[in-house]
């Protein structure tokens, strides 16, 4: 048994984090915190050609925005010497062997196996090469890639979500761990890191199930403790198709730019794929307390960004001022509690707060108004009381209606345009209470131009 839970999230800095990455990070984070464990952030940057600093910086920024912190972090690119040591150790033990097959040769073998209705498993022809054949390949300029030699035995584990899973070594293809150009691949580095850093639980998507089978034998070959594995179902789109085709358009950066709140994203993602009903939480602590891996099912959940938008709107309509004030202030938005309670009723995304803060605190741009409405505003200016109270709006609009014979839309719409510059928004009487006498007078005059 492990003394303390230690879990990791391992993104690659080859693109921006998307909704699928966020789900993986969140599930691992909530599991760790629920068990009072340690959360490790590993930057999988062994692919030096595709890894970029801007993506790496974005990983740290996006996780912070989601409210996910970590206890420890490291870069795989700083551990190449360690990987080289393990490579030599596995070669010496016979667990890692060189293969000189070209991509074309491997593709021919794959197609031949499939045409014979056989699984495309590597035939281990590299193990039968003579020294003379190897020398000949070397002289031709061929460089070997390295495969891990799977043992011909059963591989069984109790998956934290899927229950008992069993594979057999003879049914799996020896995985490539090191490319012919010397690049260390994911499975190789990941197993070494998990052992060295004491990872106790690995929670990831079900597309890694076969990887888990081969990695368990790698853990055993390196005499490291085998972590406990759990595999979540992958997200589908709203029509039941593969969401992976759309992930590029669902980056956390795009969602943030659209004004989606991180707690809305977290509340949705931690319930997708579980037996629990959807529920909006207002703190990470609540998400942690409610989290349980046993709630996850084997049914693939559907992700709909329209659901996310609806949850986002509902969140703002109910969120307390105390939960938002820090976020608002960080963006230069300084509402009073009363202002916030009035504005939030018409907010769909966080960006709407910026719009309404600007409307309340800065000069507005007036739309062009008809001559009839301008004449109406002139009367409104004449009848505007010099002192404001809670009854001012009712008395003022009542007097306006009596003098102009306007009612309903004809009465209120030109006032809304003059006072806010918009066609719609919170109840106009509430907005009026948030403006000073000078602001109201200036805006009524502004509607005359």
Protein architecture, described:
47% of the residues lie in helices and 10% in strands. The protein is mainly alpha-helical and 449 residues long. It folds into four domains: 6-72 and 185-232, Rossmann fold, CATH 3.40.50; 82-178, Glutamyl-tRNA Synthetase, domain 3 (Alpha-Beta Complex); 243-321, Glutamyl-tRNA Synthetase, domain 2 (Orthogonal Bundle), CATH 1.10.1160; 363-446, Arc Repressor Mutant, subunit A (Orthogonal Bundle). The strands form four sheets. Strands 1-2-3 form a three-stranded parallel beta sheet, covered by helices on one side. Strands 4-5-8 form a three-stranded antiparallel beta sheet. A two-stranded antiparallel ribbon has the order 6-7. The radius of gyration is 31 Å and the shape is elongated. The N and C termini lie far apart (77 Å).
């Amino acid at each position: 048994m492990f003394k303390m839970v230690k879990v990791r999230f391992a993104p690659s800095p080859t693109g921006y984090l998307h909704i699928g990455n966020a789900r993986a990070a969140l599930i691992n984070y909530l599991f760790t915190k629920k068990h009072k464990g340690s959360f490790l952030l590993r930057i999988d940057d062994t692919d030096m050609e595709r890894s970029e600093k801007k993506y790496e910086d974005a990983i740290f920024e996006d996780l912070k925005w989601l409210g996910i912190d970590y206890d420890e972090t490291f870069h795989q690119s700083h551990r190449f010497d360690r990987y080289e040591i393990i490579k030599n150790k596995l070669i010496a033990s016979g667990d890692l062997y060189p293969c000189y097959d070209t991509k074309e040769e491997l593709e021919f073998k794959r197609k031949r196996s499939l045409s014979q209705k056989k699984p495309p498993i590597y035939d281990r022809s590299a193990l039968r090469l003579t020294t003379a054949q190897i020398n000949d390949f070397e002289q031709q300029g061929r460089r070997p890639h390295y495969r891990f030699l799977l043992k011909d035995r059963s591989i069984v584990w109790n998956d934290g979500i899927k229950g008992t899973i069993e594979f057999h070594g003879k049914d799996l293809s020896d995985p490539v761990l090191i490319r012919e150009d010397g690049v260390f691949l994911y499975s190789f580095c990941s197993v070494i890191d998990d052992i060295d850093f004491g990872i106790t639980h690995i929670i990831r998507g079900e597309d890694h199930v076969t990887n888990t089978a081969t990695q368990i034998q790698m853990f055993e070959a390196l005499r490291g403790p085998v972590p406990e594995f759990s595999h979540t179902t992958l997200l589908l789109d709203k029509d039941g198709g593969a969401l992976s085709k759309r992930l590029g358009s669902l980056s956390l950066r795009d969602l943030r730019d659209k004004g989606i709140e991180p707690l809305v994203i977290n509340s949705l993602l931690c319930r997708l794929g579980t037996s629990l009903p959807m529920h909006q939480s207002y703190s990470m602590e609540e998400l942690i307390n409610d989290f349980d891996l046993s709630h996850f099912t084997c049914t693939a959940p559907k992700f709909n960004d329209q659901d996310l938008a609806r949850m986002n709107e509902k969140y703002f309509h109910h969120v307390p001022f105390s939960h938002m004030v820090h976020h608002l202030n960080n963006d230069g938005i300084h509402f009073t509690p009363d202002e916030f309670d009035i504005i939030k009723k018409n907010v769909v995304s966080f960006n709407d707060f910026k719009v309404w803060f600007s409307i309340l605190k800065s000069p507005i741009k007036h739309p062009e108004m008809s001559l009839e409405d301008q004449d109406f505003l002139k009367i409104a200016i004449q009848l505007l009381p010099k002192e404001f109270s809670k009854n001012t709006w009712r008395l003022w609009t009542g007097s306006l209606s009596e003098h102009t014979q306007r009612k309903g839309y004809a009465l209120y719409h030109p006032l809304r345009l003059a006072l806010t510059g918009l066609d719609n928004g919170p109840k106009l009487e509430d907005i009026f209470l948030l403006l000073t006498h000078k602001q109201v007078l200036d805006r009524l005059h502004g509607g005359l131009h």
